[in-house]
Protein backbone atom coordinates (compact mmCIF):
# COMPACT_ATOMS: atom_id res chain seq x y z
CA UNK A 1 0.00 0.00 0.00
CA UNK A 2 1.56 3.30 -1.06
CA UNK A 3 1.04 6.63 0.59
CA UNK A 4 0.76 9.89 -1.34
CA UNK A 5 2.96 12.86 -0.42
CA UNK A 6 0.13 14.79 1.25
CA UNK A 7 -0.71 11.89 3.55
CA UNK A 8 2.97 11.35 4.38
CA UNK A 9 3.44 15.04 5.24
CA UNK A 10 0.31 14.99 7.40
CA UNK A 11 1.66 11.97 9.30
CA UNK A 12 5.01 13.68 9.83
CA UNK A 13 3.19 16.78 11.10
CA UNK A 14 1.18 14.70 13.58
CA UNK A 15 4.37 13.00 14.86
CA UNK A 16 6.07 16.40 15.27
CA UNK A 17 3.04 17.79 17.09
CA UNK A 18 2.89 14.73 19.37
CA UNK A 19 6.58 15.02 20.22
CA UNK A 20 6.16 18.76 20.89
CA UNK A 21 3.31 18.14 23.36
CA UNK A 22 5.23 15.32 25.07
CA UNK A 23 8.31 17.49 25.64
CA UNK A 24 6.16 20.43 26.76
CA UNK A 25 4.75 18.13 29.45
CA UNK A 26 8.25 17.05 30.51
CA UNK A 27 9.50 20.66 30.59
CA UNK A 28 6.55 22.04 32.55
CA UNK A 29 6.65 19.11 35.00
CA UNK A 30 10.33 19.84 35.59
CA UNK A 31 9.61 23.54 36.06
CA UNK A 32 6.99 22.61 38.67
CA UNK A 33 9.44 20.33 40.47
CA UNK A 34 12.56 22.49 40.51
CA UNK A 35 11.33 25.32 42.79
CA UNK A 36 9.86 22.69 45.12
CA UNK A 37 13.26 20.98 45.24
CA UNK A 38 14.81 24.36 46.07
CA UNK A 39 12.37 24.84 48.97
CA UNK A 40 13.40 21.48 50.45
CA UNK A 41 17.05 22.22 49.72
CA UNK A 42 16.86 25.54 51.57
CA UNK A 43 15.23 23.84 54.54
CA UNK A 44 18.11 21.38 54.85
CA UNK A 45 21.14 22.21 56.97
CA UNK A 46 24.01 23.86 55.07
CA UNK A 47 26.79 21.36 54.35
CA UNK A 48 24.72 18.38 55.44
CA UNK A 49 24.44 15.06 53.56
CA UNK A 50 20.78 15.95 52.92
CA UNK A 51 21.82 19.20 51.24
CA UNK A 52 24.31 17.31 49.05
CA UNK A 53 21.50 14.93 48.01
CA UNK A 54 19.30 17.89 47.04
CA UNK A 55 22.12 19.42 45.00
CA UNK A 56 22.50 16.12 43.12
CA UNK A 57 18.73 15.73 42.58
CA UNK A 58 18.53 19.29 41.24
CA UNK A 59 21.47 18.67 38.90
CA UNK A 60 19.86 15.51 37.52
CA UNK A 61 16.49 17.21 37.03
CA UNK A 62 18.18 20.06 35.14
CA UNK A 63 20.49 17.98 32.96
CA UNK A 64 18.34 14.90 32.29
CA UNK A 65 14.86 16.45 31.98
CA UNK A 66 14.65 20.23 31.99
CA UNK A 67 17.38 21.38 29.61
CA UNK A 68 16.82 18.69 26.92
CA UNK A 69 13.03 19.13 27.12
CA UNK A 70 13.25 22.91 26.70
CA UNK A 71 15.54 22.58 23.69
CA UNK A 72 13.23 20.03 22.06
CA UNK A 73 10.16 22.17 22.79
CA UNK A 74 11.77 25.07 20.93
CA UNK A 75 13.03 22.98 18.00
CA UNK A 76 9.76 21.11 17.53
CA UNK A 77 7.60 24.19 18.15
CA UNK A 78 9.48 26.31 15.62
CA UNK A 79 9.34 23.43 13.13
CA UNK A 80 5.56 23.26 13.58
CA UNK A 81 5.23 27.04 13.18
CA UNK A 82 7.19 26.90 9.92
CA UNK A 83 5.24 23.87 8.72
CA UNK A 84 1.90 25.53 9.53
CA UNK A 85 3.04 28.92 8.22
CA UNK A 86 1.53 30.59 11.31
CA UNK A 87 3.89 33.57 11.48
CA UNK A 88 1.09 36.06 10.76
CA UNK A 89 -1.13 34.67 13.54
CA UNK A 90 -1.48 36.87 16.63
CA UNK A 91 -1.97 33.89 18.93
CA UNK A 92 1.44 32.53 17.87
CA UNK A 93 3.15 35.85 18.63
CA UNK A 94 1.77 35.87 22.17
CA UNK A 95 2.52 32.16 22.61
CA UNK A 96 6.14 32.74 21.57
CA UNK A 97 6.38 35.65 23.99
CA UNK A 98 5.07 33.44 26.82
CA UNK A 99 7.44 30.59 25.89
CA UNK A 100 10.30 33.07 25.79
CA UNK A 101 9.26 34.21 29.27
CA UNK A 102 9.17 30.59 30.47
CA UNK A 103 12.64 30.10 29.00
CA UNK A 104 13.83 33.12 30.98
CA UNK A 105 12.20 31.71 34.11
CA UNK A 106 13.96 28.40 33.37
CA UNK A 107 17.29 30.24 33.16
CA UNK A 108 16.60 32.12 36.38
CA UNK A 109 15.79 28.86 38.16
CA UNK A 110 19.02 27.28 36.86
CA UNK A 111 20.98 30.26 38.17
CA UNK A 112 19.17 30.09 41.50
CA UNK A 113 20.17 26.43 41.82
CA UNK A 114 23.81 27.36 41.30
CA UNK A 115 23.53 29.96 44.07
CA UNK A 116 21.97 27.37 46.37
CA UNK A 117 24.73 24.87 45.58
CA UNK A 118 27.31 27.52 46.52
CA UNK A 119 25.66 28.08 49.91
CA UNK A 120 23.62 31.19 49.12
CA UNK A 121 19.91 31.33 49.93
CA UNK A 122 18.73 34.59 48.35
CA UNK A 123 14.96 33.94 48.30
CA UNK A 124 12.64 32.79 51.04
CA UNK A 125 10.78 29.49 50.89
CA UNK A 126 7.58 31.53 50.53
CA UNK A 127 8.99 33.39 47.51
CA UNK A 128 9.99 30.06 45.93
CA UNK A 129 6.49 28.70 46.54
CA UNK A 130 5.02 31.74 44.78
CA UNK A 131 7.52 31.36 41.90
CA UNK A 132 6.32 27.77 41.59
CA UNK A 133 3.03 29.17 40.19
CA UNK A 134 4.68 30.77 37.14
CA UNK A 135 4.73 27.63 34.93
CA UNK A 136 1.09 26.87 35.75
CA UNK A 137 -0.17 30.32 34.80
CA UNK A 138 1.93 30.33 31.62
CA UNK A 139 0.69 26.85 30.69
CA UNK A 140 -2.96 27.86 31.05
CA UNK A 141 -2.44 30.91 28.84
CA UNK A 142 -0.47 28.99 26.21
CA UNK A 143 -3.01 26.15 26.00
CA UNK A 144 -5.88 28.62 25.56
CA UNK A 145 -3.94 30.45 22.84
CA UNK A 146 -3.15 27.24 20.94
CA UNK A 147 -6.59 25.62 21.24
CA UNK A 148 -8.93 28.64 21.06
CA UNK A 149 -6.72 30.87 18.85
CA UNK A 150 -8.56 33.99 20.07
CA UNK A 151 -6.78 36.28 17.60
List low-confidence stretches.
Answer: none
Global morphology:
elongated
* Largest sheet composition: none
Mean residue pLDDT? 95
Given the structure, what is the number of helices? 5
**What fraction, in percent, of the residue positions are helical?**
over 70%
Q: Work out the count of structural domains.
A: 1
Number of strands: 0
Q: How far do the termini sit from each other?
A: 41 Å
Helix/strand order, N-terminal first? HHHHH
Describe this structure in words.
By secondary structure, the protein is mainly alpha-helical. The chain has one domain (5-148). Helices cover 83% and strands 0% of the residues. It contains 5 helices and no strands. The chain has helices at 5-43, 49-84, 90-117, 125-131, 134-148. It is elongated. The model has no long low-confidence stretch (mean pLDDT 95).
Task: Describe what is shown at a glance.
The chain contains 5 helices and no strands.
Structure keywords:
mainly alpha; 151 residues; 83% helix
Map the helices and strands.
Elements: H1 5-43, H2 49-84, H3 90-117, H4 125-131, H5 134-148
Helix pairs in contact: 1-2, 1-3, 1-4, 2-3, 3-5
Amino acid sequence: MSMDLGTALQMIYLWLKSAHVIFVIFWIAGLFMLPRFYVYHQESAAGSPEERRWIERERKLRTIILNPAMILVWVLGLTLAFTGDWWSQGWLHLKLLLVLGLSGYHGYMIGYGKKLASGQRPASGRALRIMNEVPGVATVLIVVLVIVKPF
